Task: structure prediction
Amino acid sequence: MDTFFYPRSIAVVGASKTNLGYSVLMNLVNGFQGGIYPVNRNHGEIEGVPCFSTLEAIPYPVDLAIIIVPAASIPAVLEACARKGIQSVIIESAGFAETGADGLALQDQCVAIAKGAGIRIWGPNCMGVVDILRKHFFTFMHPAIRAEGLLPGRISLIVQSGMMSAIFLVELAHRGIGVAKACSIGNRADVDECDVLEYLLADPDTEVIALYSESILRGRLFAQMAQSSTKPIVLLKGGSSEAGAQAAKSHTYSLSGNSRLLNSVLELSGVTVADEIYQMMDLANALATIPHIDPACRTAIVTLSGGAGVLACDALERHGIPVAQLSEQTKKTLSELFPVWMPVANPIDLFPTVGLHGRDVAFGRAISAVLEDSNVDVLLIHVVVGLGEDIEDLAALKKKADQLGKMVLFWLMGRQEAGERFRQRARTLGIPVHADISRAAECLRAVSKFMVHKTIATADGAASTPPSASVSKKPPLPSREKIWDEFDSKQFLASWAIPVVEERLVDSLDEAWRTAQAMGLPVVVKGLMPGEVHKTEHGLVQLGITDKFLLEAAFHHIQEKLDHRGKILIQKQVQSEYELIAGFIRDNQCGPCVMFGLGGILAELEPDVAFAMAPLYREGALKLIKRIRSRRLLQGFRGMPPLDGEAMADILVNLGTVGVAYQQIEQIDINPLAISTGAPVAVDATVMLKD
Amino acid sequence: MDTFFYPRSIAVVGASKTNLGYSVLMNLVNGFQGGIYPVNRNHGEIEGVPCFSTLEAIPYPVDLAIIIVPAASIPAVLEACARKGIQSVIIESAGFAETGADGLALQDQCVAIAKGAGIRIWGPNCMGVVDILRKHFFTFMHPAIRAEGLLPGRISLIVQSGMMSAIFLVELAHRGIGVAKACSIGNRADVDECDVLEYLLADPDTEVIALYSESILRGRLFAQMAQSSTKPIVLLKGGSSEAGAQAAKSHTYSLSGNSRLLNSVLELSGVTVADEIYQMMDLANALATIPHIDPACRTAIVTLSGGAGVLACDALERHGIPVAQLSEQTKKTLSELFPVWMPVANPIDLFPTVGLHGRDVAFGRAISAVLEDSNVDVLLIHVVVGLGEDIEDLAALKKKADQLGKMVLFWLMGRQEAGERFRQRARTLGIPVHADISRAAECLRAVSKFMVHKTIATADGAASTPPSASVSKKPPLPSREKIWDEFDSKQFLASWAIPVVEERLVDSLDEAWRTAQAMGLPVVVKGLMPGEVHKTEHGLVQLGITDKFLLEAAFHHIQEKLDHRGKILIQKQVQSEYELIAGFIRDNQCGPCVMFGLGGILAELEPDVAFAMAPLYREGALKLIKRIRSRRLLQGFRGMPPLDGEAMADILVNLGTVGVAYQQIEQIDINPLAISTGAPVAVDATVMLKD
Result:
């Protein structure tokens, strides 16, 4: 991979005096310090750079070839590359898989040639590689983009879509955010996001990786790399909506896959997931500038506008960032600044103190007190610049914050020019400045989450506890049906130490009544039909059987519905506080995964599920349990007993182990997993095998 | 009120050569065309404007006085105003209610003097009045703010907080959004947001009203005005979070009140509620430029970047805006532009057509086809400017869109200068331009909702159907207890035609068993204790009583818990698909209101309720039912019977009627309101009276 970024010499196949071939060459001439060898049989030179009629005519060694000739001629070019001994090729031309079956065949042909010759292909249909620090522009990117003032920085980009790559560079420049490398990977015929991620994780210039992608080819590997990464990764995933996924399909000819699962798995692996372009940029920038603060991110707000203080609280609370409770010491210091009638509280509205002490004294003393407060991790200062004196000594402020291990950031308003000056000073010092308080709160949230991830990623041994159920003692699967009925499914899960409801198949009404009495009333009567998973909708479930009369009615009703084709099940009716769901799924991007979520009809309306890759260790299972939106429900909400987290974690670990142990298993659904005085028990379940 | 905006002459009490008194005078001199009379006994003139030693020394009639002297001296100034016959006074000085009890007393004294003399007070503690169209700056606002290039426009502002008023003007100017009037109302000792709203609704210069407020003093009147308004109103409500409400309390010394209720009532009245400053500005701007389009807002997307198309779909779907299904005719036209391998779909990615037809032809023909498509209401064009030719003929595009009754807007990216030029051209033509696609989608959502509101606000008779239960036949209240038990509460509600569960009070176990048999098993046994609303937590509810043995156990258990102090209730156990809640509440801002929402434990975790003012008419009740997030649940979700909307509306109408009829009623809670085969029935209820 190194050759794609730091070649000693580059051949440009398709260099020309106009169009993209000209842009590629000029982008090299204006920055690249190594050998530049344009290949063009019609010109002796272009802008003073001598041309060669073929690759093989170049009398020097060539590390990298950039190809920008029509697609149809590229197989021949690759063969020439092989003869010349070139190991790395960036194909920037379009006309491959994205145009349909013929293009895909052409692309496959190129990959085959390259593979045979040990050549790695970057692209095709991409904008290539940019390294701002070294002024490497291995791309046909419009020269106007460089004129927008690209800033060197610590964020590297991986971008699937070519246009987006250019857009990101321009928009980051406008926001004053610096970039290390930008990698437009196009059709990913060979080099894909995992290759580039692996490279950037080891790249000393890169501190944060931001990614735009409509699908991730090797989601599992990607998540595994993220899991152990101490560099923040921010993902903007296109195609997360139904309409968007449809559009992504016709844009990149690759299925977006299960976005909910992928995002959930990646978030659990420490990836920050963004919804939109600027949000992604701001999150990446925030993650590039964070000091080592407490993940609690208890935030103090200093302002001269009471209204801004109110709105800041609203935004922080909306994003789950706690408004700090000031210590008694801080309150005492502040009360000496404030007029007597003014209560001391966070947000700290300094407006009434300015008249008493002057702006500098008021700000200086308040900020010092707050930074020294051990109840405060983050100091958010709201300023309106250009309408009087502004805070001048940002360097001292930043130094003090760093010394105390605190984060300081600004919510900036005011006059345009003064604002720009302020922003530039803050940028030089690495102080984040936000125009939008909601975005500031989102960034703090991302910082907080990443601080937690980093602690885990850094600690050894977190992933070393083996799953409780061992895979070595694996009996053969009890059924070869594609869809197992709930009895078979639960018997199987029970053999893997997953608690299931008490139930028994019965042949006669007499046996049914004896069973019901033995279990204790009320019971449920269910009819099991091969392949039928929608029992309730088909009248095959009778709840609340409390006496012999009701049992008889239910038994006959279901017997009639079954029409001699199925089995009758008597099941103890579980009184539950609420219902969860759990399961196993084999995903095309992430491989075997465990699912955990809220059950019941409302959860169908607004799904609340989280996923993690299997096999799952106890720590991972406990983390997964905490990922759902409704996690408060599990903690002993409204006087209910709390969920038995250990038992729940065991179930999730075992589901993962089972799924990994049996390659034939496609999916396992436990729905509902009833929670009865805090203990989980599988009431209904389905095991599905591959075709 | 007219005098506050268009006085013929103004006296400035406290005009001076420095500080705020100087700013007020200079803001008048630089714009106001009427008489300007500074009152200052120490100077003969200020900047050439002759001063008067007292108000009464002014030999001309004075319409408006602006007061900027220390608070303590203001009662005397108001008495002088009275003697001079001045009817309108803006007090910009601080030092009143916001400083505590003494300040509040001073403020009350001023109000009393003014009332006695028929003077209206604006403020105190405010930035006053600005009218950009007429260059009226009746304010001490920093002159630098005018230098930021304030644009005349059609949005008027009402701002409670003084600083926010200045911030809004500056930030709107930076975003190129024009303003008509800006009204900073401060402590609202007399003139409040309702007075100003009423005035602006009738103001021909104002087309949209944007409001920042931490509380609304007369919420009910405000909502009523909004209800019948055909001008959009956008509200940024500070203090919607717990921490924010706390901060608002110490900022404006007024309770934020029940933000959820207020926001809900206002949204139902057609108000657009914003969460943050820039969002409020963008929403107001979007609502100021909308043509009369179909509220469906079916949106077509035209772009040169497949990735942008994908992200646009994601954002639209996230905000509930449908991605349009193109007509066959449009598809045919587009397929003639596209290469054969390219499927025609929305988003319309024109990238592959540019090479075939040139950019102008591709864009021109695609845009025409889409605008003419009757399945399309909105055309969203994504452009990246400054990297080649840009769309030049915006005027023709806008004209065509207007002729066809369609809305066109841009998602703009690209180089900074080219972007600014594009934005200015679009602004002149009234075409919205967004940098952020999520915000664009939010704006479309607001436009869509407002179009629906406007249709209703414009139609007569919507509010003319009388509530079904008439208030004339009002019997006396059956109890004077502060908190009624559930039996009394439901008996009362049943007398108002609200369906309640079958239940009976019993004295003995024998009677309990006879009652249970008559009702049909299973039943519920409840113990009612005076004033006890947490029956379940206190073991006073026994569910699922299916036989005599269980009944006996439950009866004795509850009898013991009650210890001779309460009553025992036998209730039929209702099998329900799901649970709702409904109620009545008397709010301090909005008065009598009806509440509707989702029940059950999950709704306690993530509340999903909506409110409307009582009395409620059938149409209002039907609208209220549709306001909850989980409304899909009510429509016959997953094979369940749909909610009987008529029966539900009756309950809500009747709750409102009861609450309005009996002034003593403070609150009514029906929780749960069980939905059994689609029909609502009150299972538990509590009526609460005022102290």
